[in-house]
Structure formats: C-alpha cells, structure tokens
Amino acid sequence: MEENVFVFDHPLIQHKVSLLRDKNTSTKEFRELVSEIAMLMAYEVTRDLPLKDVDIETPVAMAHTKMLAGKKLAIVPILRAGLGMVDGMTQLIPNVRVGHIGLYRDPVTVQPVEYYCKMPEDVAERDVIVLDPMLATGGSASAAIGFLKDRGIKHIKFMCLIAAPEGIARLTKDHPDVKIFCAAKDEKLNEHSYIVPGLGDAGDRLFGTN
Ligand code: PRP
Ligand code: URA
User: Fold this and answer.
1) 195 in ligand 2 pocket by Cβ < 6 Å?
2) Tens of pLDDT along 77-123?
3) Using only C-alpha atoms, what is the Rg of the chain?
4) Residue 34 pLDDT more than 90?
5) Which ligand lies nearest to the CA atom of residue 166 in the structure?
6) Does the annotation mark 201 as catalytic?
C-alpha cells in the first residue's frame, strides 16, 4: 500500500529535531523545541486551506487579494505528549478549536487505552489535525483516528515529530485516507517498541517525569 507521508526537510526543522534528540537537552529546552517545530510544521500542514477573494483598501489603492475562506478546523492532541505541540499550532492558527483525546500505551501489551475525550461540539463539521510527537507502533494514532471517525469526522491529518516505519505502515493500512506529516522518519523500533534512535519518552521529557 502506498504511503501518504510528508517528511519535512527544512533545515530549521532538522536542526531543532537534532537538539530534541539530545539526551542532555533540558525539559525547558525540550518544551520550547517541540512548540517551535510544531509551529514550523503548521505552515505546511495548512497549505491546502481554501482562500477567498477580497478587496482591501491600502493607503495607496484597492488591492484585489486573498484571505482564508474560514474553513472550520480543529486540532486534537493525543494526551499527554501531544499537548506540547498545541501552543506552536495556536500561535499560527489562533482561532483553531482544540479537542483532547487521552490515550496511554499499556506498558505490557503496548495497546492504547482511552481515558479521556472532549471534542468541540461541532467537531464532525471540522477538518481535524491530530497531534502526537511520536508514531511508534502506530497503535495510539490509529485508535485516536478511529475514535474521531466514529464521531463523524471525515477529513483527518496526522502530524508527528518522529515516525517509525512500523507506525507509518500501521497507519497507512488502518487509515489510508489520513496523510501523515512528520519531521523525521527513523530507522526502527526496539524490543520495547521505542523508536530508534528516536528521542526517548516524549511525555516524560516534556513534563519532566519518568
Ligand atoms: C507515547 C506517544 C504516543 C505513543 C506512541 O505516549 O506520545 O501517544 O506513545 O506509541 P505507539 O505508536 O506505539 O502507540 P505514551 O503512551 O507514552 O503516553 P504519554 O504521552 O502519556 O506519556
Ligand atoms: N512513545 C515515546 O514517547 N517514545 C517512543 O520512542 C515510542 C513511544
């Protein structure tokens, strides 16, 4: 099955992802970097937003120009680690609605367990961008997207920082309609289903837990 993946090759993103991977990067720096990378990625992820023609009076003349057509959008971070990407996105898209979905990966079975879900009331009418820094086995992302589709959402994109080939394959198989945007495509998973080389546990590094 053909993968629907966009890997960001922008030098600023690659530089910041390298800093993120460094085990000596502090919690403060890690948080800032995740937010900055999400903001840079938002630029590409929203490239297909529709525009409308507008006439704007400049101090010199009328400008026949374009503005956003007001497409209804929502972002949905997967708790916890997806929260780190929200600020960067809302800086670029200030009016975006934010839904939350809580999933954790059972450490023994590695299966996603849902513990929280709160969506904007009209979420079924919105295009949704799901946020999670890590796409490892793909279990969490696939389950989250499944829950959103059950709520009637038709247009979904998935945005992560680091993706493993296994996660990309799983998501492509389960949700071939969902485009994946990632800042880096890594080598593999290890025996604990952590991404190699990855950056470790994104939630722990963001929130200073372990
Ligand atoms: C991490 C990460 C993803 C998931 C990826 O969350 O943020 O949600 O693992 O793994 P998968 O692709 O194999 O499902 P985790 O379960 O550690 O929860 P946390 O964000 O609360 O730390
Ligand atoms: N979740 C993480 O936070 N990191 C990984 O490498 C895999 C899953």
Assistant:
1) yes
2) 999 999 999 999 999 999 999 999 998 878 888 888 889 999 999 99
3) 18
4) yes
5) 1
6) yes
